[in-house]
Design goal:
The protein has 70 residues and is α+β, with helices and mostly antiparallel strands. Helix content is 36%, strand content 21%. It is built from two helices and two strands; from the N terminus they run αββα. A two-stranded antiparallel ribbon has the order 1-2.
Length: 70
């Protein structure tokens, strides 16, 4: 997100991204932290994405990355 974004706007950006990720079949949970790299401001975030067990899903991590970048 751009430098100077406020926390309310950043929350909207993150909520939209989380919703898109959760629509991808095989994504089980998404955990996001905002402003998480030492002195980083609210314009940075980190995401942890929990996938279904490999025996339960029909895609690879590589396919997930391609699906979300299209």
């Amino acid at each position: 997100a751009p430098e100077g974004i406020n926390i309310v706007a950043m929350e909207k950006v993150i909520t939209d991204i989380e919703a898109e990720l959760l629509r991808v079949g095989g994504v089980k949970h998404v955990l996001t932290t905002v402003g998480n790299r030492g002195v980083a401001g609210v314009n940075s975030a980190g995401m942890f994405i929990k996938l279904q067990d490999i025996t339960e899903r029909t895609f690879s991590l590589e396919r997930l990355l391609h699906a979300t970048w299209e």
